[in-house]
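INTERNAL TRANSFER SHEET
From: sequence group
To: structure group
Subject: NAD(P)-dependent dehydrogenase, short-chain alcohol dehydrogenase family

Please process the attached sequence and return the structure record in the designated field. Keep the field labels unchanged so the import script can parse them.
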Amino acid sequence: MNSKIKLAIVTGGASGLGLATTKKFIEQGIKTIIIGRDESKLISAAQQFGELCTYRQYDLSDTTGIPQLVAEIEAEFGVPDILVNNAGINHKKAFAEVTDEEFSRVIQTNLTSVFAISREVVKSMLKAGGGSIVNISSMAAQYGIPYVIAYSASKTAIEGMTRAMATELSPQGIRVNCVAPGFIATDMSAKALDNDPVRKQKVMGRTPMGKLGEPADVAEAVYYLATDSAKYVTGVVLQVDGGNSIGF
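Return from structure group:
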């Protein structure tokens, strides 16, 4: 890629790990378009980051409008060099009580929409001669976690899709990688863990570094894989987890 300002799309870029990734990209001079559902969060992020950051409000679970969304972004800004598929939802419920609708909703948002937006962006990246896609997985794809069956299924599928995409697309200059965050200190995880001391103890007990990660830790990994620092890296799942996935 040449020296023009790089362009990135970050889904779910207005909060949590997506926001940290957007911040890192902006600091490195990458023009970043964040896509999300919550307009107030999007506006707040765009104001915080200034002119390199712009947003599109869109619910990616509605895959029918994704081709139009990507076409509009490309018409205005050009072909993205980087796509970070970070948007996702979780659903905590006992396996036997999860309905078909609940299961489908998580798969639709966490997997089908990632496929759909990647497909549209890849069409343009192929014409442009290259690009980089980073998917976001989870510890739920590294080992079994109870009460999150749909989430676990979606994130395990994301890792398989990462490898399949990388194998098919890398010969054409598109690298595809994945980051698997461990337990990171965000508002969402704090709420979940503070209300569940047993789970919190379990998390800390099997994390060799003995602490939660920070959103910036994940952002650094995404930035590495997204940019030319990782120009000979494709198809990997990089755990950013304080050793959680190998801990006992």
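Handover comment: The two ends are 42 Å apart (CA to CA). Strands lie at 7-11, 31-36, 53-57, 82-85, 131-136, 174-181, 237-240.
Transfer complete.
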